[in-house]
Amino acid sequence: MRYLPHTDTDRKAMLETIGVASIDELFTDVPDAARLDGLIDLPTKQSELQVERALSAMAAKNVAAGQAPFFVGAGAYKHHIPATVDHLIQRSEFLTAYTPYQPEISQGTLQTLFEFQTQVALLTGMDVANASMYDGSTACAEAIMMAARVTRRNKAVMAGGVHPHYIEASKTLAKYSDVEISVTDPAASGLDEVIAAIGDETACIVVQTPDVFGRLHDLRAISEAAHEKGALVIAVFTECVALGLVESPGAMGADIAVGEGQSIGVGLNFGGPYVGLFACKDDRRFIRQMPGRLAGETVDADGRRGYVLTLSTREQHIRRDKATSNICTNSGLCSLAWTIHMTLLGEKGITTLARLNHETACELADALSAVEGVELVNEAFFNEFTLKLPRPAAQVVDDLARVGVIGGVPASRLFPGRFENYLIVAATETNTPEDIAVFAKALKGVL
Amino acid sequence: MTTRYTEDHEWITVDGDTATVGITAYAAGQLGDVVFVELPEVGKTLSKGDEFAVVESVKAASEVYAPVDGEIVAINDDLEGEPAKVNEDPAGAGWFVKIKLSDAAQLDGLMDEAAYNAHTA
Amino acid sequence: MGMNTQGRPTRMAENAATGGYADTVSGSRGLEQAEPLIFERGNLEHCGVDLPEPKGTRTRLGGLERQGQIGLPGLAEPETMRHYVRLSRKNYAIDLGLYPLGSCTMKHNPRLNEKIARLPGFADIHPMQPASTVQGAYQLMGELAHWLMTLTGTTAVAMSPKAGAHGEFCGMMAIRAKLDSDGQTHRRRVLVPESAHGTNPATAVQCGFTVDEIPADKTGRVDMEAFKAKLGDDVAGIMLTNPNTCGLFERDIREIADLIHEAGGYFYCDGANFNAIVGRVRPGDLGIDAMHINLHKTFSTPHGGGGPGSGPTVFSAALAAYVPVPYVQQTEKGAWELVEHAGQAAGEPFGRMAAFHGQMGMFTRALTYMMSHGSDGLKQVAEDAVLNANYILARLKHVMTPAYEGHCMHEALFDDRFLKDTGVSTLDFAKAMIDEGYHPMTMYFPLVVHGAMLIEPTETESKGGLDRFTEVLEALAEAARAGGKDRFLVAPVHAPTKRLDETRAARQPVLRWSPPANELEAAE
Question: Are A123 and A240 in contact (CB under 8 A)?
């Protein structure tokens, strides 16, 4: 086997040093009932060529986003990633390092995390950020639990426009805690219902902008209402590129901002791994209650600047049953990809990229809403919007796939039994005018 | 004024019906450099044995337990900015809270200095 | 520079303030190049990506356009490349040498796995694409699920957990759901050995359970008498790592499983150490009800400096009905489909772990790894992992002090008795290993052993490599005992930095870069 360095001669010599006659003697603690004779019933070893052939055939059964006019969003977005990003994250020193528990030989990882935390804080308009969460949905769930700890209250109100997967993941995490989550009607276009739901026991309200239908929300009124009652505002985003063009959560009064970072640097990957962004205000009460790893600046014995993982007493490996979260692994390599891509973009790049996304979406909205029977639901949007179709969107999406267009997400897939005729459509800088024309023509054809 | 000690390494010094509570030099030494102390709110009532504070070093976190019943009447705000005081002067400037005693008789169950020294020896 | 009367600088040199060496003009020393933060290097004008100019004609943002700048510096591509390559060189990595972190399974990461994961048919597909366009992706998830269930001897698997701790959460949620569904709502106590990973008690609490610790016996395993005494009708289950965190196989595991089941509880197995038994022992045969598998440990998906991980969780028949959504299944006609809502599921899913279907990028790598090894190669993996750890134990037991007697499984645990009265601590010993070019072992874990040093070499280290490693440790142990503590106390001296002040980092947290005060004034 190509990955195992020992020869049988090596093994024999090593067994001799250990003082046993065979490898079986090292497994004698295994109960007889669980001892296997022979091999488990699975295929035996294969060469690189064989494995590559088999898995390439499997990959070929999928239609890659780059192969077709592609307009799917709803929590993950197709963006162009510069070649530099993938090259750098494949550096052995980044790819094959462990969590930076030994800071003297992990400054590469630690400094990039410190830079990542700063970039996330800047982009979200918040003061500080952690070293990443698994993804946007789990970041959202953890933010709710954190808000409950900070406020010592146990009710959370989620706006119905928050991505349904985020709501389900949050409800799952809170299921056996004392935190109760209520959700307002997703059909409501504004936030009045959310504001009305804020009470004296509300720990936090959770609002996504742009929301799952692509609608943009001004969080200022809701922040004011929440703060008046002592509740925190958690701003959620699934498309972090939007923050290059629309007002940041921090500027609109949010206390915690969480979201999905996949759009920058990471790629679609069929849903994971992604990178959860988690930022909050610089308040000792908040920082002590944050989940996940934090990199911090310090000095070494010679007084030279360096970085370490810090405030670890919040975490499970020290605090055990009293930890702020059970999270251990973060999304290290994805946060590295994110920070490299963001460094390449800088202020100029991210704002330009965001504007290109918006303009492409405006053109797509014009082209699709011109199709007979199609109605644009959104008044405002960033790079994603919702259409009302004359027939069920799930069928339309299948019909579009048959003619080679990957045309969005039927809202009924996220809200079973509801919004049957609604289609959520996204456009990014990767969509060409030709893609848009093909989509409009195909949509007309299948309706 | 008398000072008493618990098996969990808290000290308690009583002056009238008010007691000052902190952790011992031995405990501070075991923890290492203290980096954070989480203190309760003034007005909270405690029963003996309740967890009322958490003291943290870089790699450890310890709960601090109430040595007696009572009400928190003051907390040491200085520890928020200068947690190092717990290491530098655990029996003085590094105090945690002042408690108004509800039952002074509970002090009798605690150790005196000699007994505590024997306990940590 | 201000000088005090003793002639020492009273102010740090400029270089030192930004992480460079103070004794060179540049702050670099040859190939050890100082690298400032991007915020000190870049500015708002630089950009390393060419984008078309937006038309700027219209917006439909409802008046929510960003006011004011973000403050993100950019760098051109060559500068970006240098920044990160320079930083990368300050990291240790498995590709550079032995990485003997116990409980972490730092094994070689085959590059075929990377290549397969990057095929556009896997990397460039969206989780919400129509099912007809992602049949190969569903198939891959299905095949990996089959491998995982077969290797563990279990009947169901949740693929969506995003890391080991997330898998623990998944497993314990299923146990809680099963207990509640059976009306066993008084069962809220979970037994966890003292030696457990911190994630175990944290997870149990997250699922609304209380934690009751079980002590270890003299051999480093669960104290059976203490365990039996803790059984009762309020017990929800046990969370047990096997092989355990002392690197030992729990000999009484069948009895533990039987007793917990008889008591009405369930058996959660922490699968972090599955590498020791993969292909040789099926945990299902040991009586477990749920177990997460760290694909980033046993199945070699890269650790990436702290993630991403992936923690698929397998279940016995008793818990199979509670597997969370989404999951894939095959129709009678052979097509693959996704069950993504509780309403579509045959069982009673307890909820959803996260958005979408799981860590596909890790699935592709793990399946590539499994297919490469096959059932025979995986069995050899376990055997060589155990062989290597025992070889280290055998070579070092005369100079270091093994925590327990007898052979170990995939990792060798030492305590700090051999350092007694040397003035050298476990930490100092570990830091001296850095100077010798090795990453230290896991230190101070498990908590049940004083000054613990947990060494897991994995199967991908050669005999020659292990010989050199043990020779170095032997020499270090002898040096410590011969009174040579000074080199330990200052170590590391040959790393990119010396020991870092963690107390300062925690007392005055600096969690982000901020512009220097004078720049702020200038901006006003």
Answer: yes
